[in-house]
């Protein structure tokens, strides 16, 4: 309907008090300015100026157009400044595995906010397999996910491994010290969601040679898993860092035999180098710094 050049012409007419003075300031013929304004009024089907013997003044619609146009011009100038000065701004679609939301994420985002105050984050918390699909389809810009489930063709930077332990509430369960696979498998177990790699690992660890499959319950929420284990629903496979950050849950680690130990979780920062190289590198820097704290 209108362009920035139309806005500049209207602003010049208002600022200089008429078409003739505006033509001098813009270096355009008065007839060209008049024609441009008339065509704009025809396209928009409004009167922008009221003309009388003393000059011109804005109509109510013209004032509304100028007020709104000032916002557009300011946004245009801001975008140009950010692009030409290499400022990081805009929305970053960030996918995060829930384990990372309790550990790396808060420190990472605080770092990024301090360095790049114009960035905005849309945070999605999901399983690694789901986020891997979204990353490949350009539904997310940067993802912190399990390394083994990262899609091909992306840039991947490993984070320090996350250690897992068996935890329970001493008030509800008493196990041998150390507990073996048979001891653990005889109890209800709260683990990661069924579709995830950690859940499958727990099932594989407990299943070989057993007639009855262990009862492994999946929870997409670590907070829910902590509450279930704390209240005696079962024992849980939970990252050590998470339990340390929730001391009020009153969980105690179950010492187990070597064959019952859980493998570490290997997370990585992932992004497409073709689409998100700049922000991907900056999120990677902040995530590594947060993991070292």
UniProtKB/TrEMBL annotation:
Transmembrane segments: none annotated. The keyword Transcription regulation applies. It comes from Paracoccus nototheniae. Keywords: DNA-binding, Transcription, Transcription regulation. InterPro entries: LTTR, LysR_HTH_N, LysR_subst-bd, WH-like_DNA-bd_sf, WH_DNA-bd_sf. Residues 2-59 form the HTH lysR-type domain. Belongs to the LysR transcriptional regulatory family. This is LysR family transcriptional regulator. SUPFAM superfamilies: Periplasmic binding protein-like II (SSF53850), Winged helix' DNA-binding domain (SSF46785). It comes from the Bacteria. The keyword DNA-binding applies.
